[in-house]
Amino acid sequence: MQKVQALYEYEIITKEQTALIDKAADCLASSFIGVDIAGKWVQEPMVGQLKIGYEDFYQFTKDYIDSTVEQGYCAVALDRNQNVVGVLAGDTNAPEIIGEDVFEGSFSDMNVILHVLEDVDKRFMADYKERTGKEMKDEEMLHLFMLGVTAEHERHEVIKQLGNILITKASSQGLKAVLAEATNPKSIRVMEKYHNMEKYKDIEGNYIVHKYEENSRLNGISSTIADGTYILIKEL
Description:
By secondary structure, the protein is an alpha+beta fold. It has 6 helices and 10 strands; from the N terminus they run βαββααββαβαβαβββ. A hairpin with a 2-residue loop joins strand 2 (35-37) and strand 3 (40-42). Helix 1 (18-33) packs across helix 3 (54-68).
């Protein structure tokens, strides 16, 4: 029987692979800002609502990858032409709560997204402390921060393989769990389906969620597109 060649290959990128880092940042920025893929519009709801521009977001994603790539949790999918068509970028840092605006100029609206993420992270860490009696530390959990897929074919397979690579590595390195902030229902569904992640409930049994309808800058996001940012978790 003739073996069917896989459409994509996968790898974890390193600091030395500067061209791949650039391509990964482009893939993430394109999918977050908004891109037409096989007739379907792909866009992150908050980025779309705030009309954040490509150049600013590209620099943000590149800075993130540059600062975390040595931890070994940035996986990419490459097509046969060595184009990056999928990225899952994460880190093992405990969530950092800055509590004030850090972005300026044309990128100042990114502060809105920062505060949404900090809101759910802060509540998660408070719940973690209540459950365990201690503060969350670096290198306890894998934090999946950004997922972007621009592949036209087998998109769910790309998401599945990227996640499998990083979650398997996290488990082998003794991390306790995988954590993510999911900003839309599509992200939640694929992470639930392919990686058995679940919407996190606090000690009182409530989901940790930042509702867009309660945010004056984000209440223009239709509830049919997304209702809020949730914490997802998977115990390892």
